[in-house]
Amino acid sequence: MNIFELLAQVQAITGGKFGLSDLLSEEFVEEHTKFSSIPELMKALPIDLSDLSTLQNYSESDLNEFVKEHSSYDSWKALLQAAVTFIQK
Fold it and tell me: b/e string for 33-43 if b means 16 or more Cβ within 10 A?
C-alpha cells in the first residue's frame, strides 16, 4: 500500500465528505499530535512530499510508526477516525 492508497482511505472513512486537509486542521493537529502546526508536522514527515517516487514507497506501516511516535494514536486509521469525530463536533 502506498501513500496514494492511504489518501484514498480518507475518502472511504469519511464517505467522501472530507479530504485530508479538512481532517488534519490546525486545531486537530495542535490538540492531538506533538506538533503545534501543520507546517511543523509536514516538515517532520520522513519523506519528501515533492518527490513522487518517495511518496509511492512510503507504506502504511511507515505512516503508522510516524503516527505512534508523534501522537497518542496507534495507527493512521485511528488518527483519521479521531479526526472525523473531531470535525463533526
Answer: bebeebeebee
pTM of this structure? 0.78
How far the first Cα of the chain sits from its last, in Å, is 31
Mention every residue, 6+ apart, whose C-beta is less than 8 A from residue 12: none
Average pLDDT, the chain: 85
The stretches of 3-75 forming alpha helices (DSSP H) are 3-14, 20-23, 26-32, 38-44, 52-57, 60-70
What would the pLDDT profile of 8-50 be if each residue is shown by its tens digit?
A: 888 888 888 888 888 889 999 999 999 999 889 988 988 776 7
Q: Are 79 and 32 spatial neighbours (Cβ–Cβ below 8 Å)? A: yes
Phi-psi map region of 65: left, alpha, beta (phi>0 left; psi -120 to 50 alpha):
alpha
Q: Which of 11, 31, 7, 6 is nearest to 89 (CA)?
A: 31
C-alpha cell at 57: 514507497
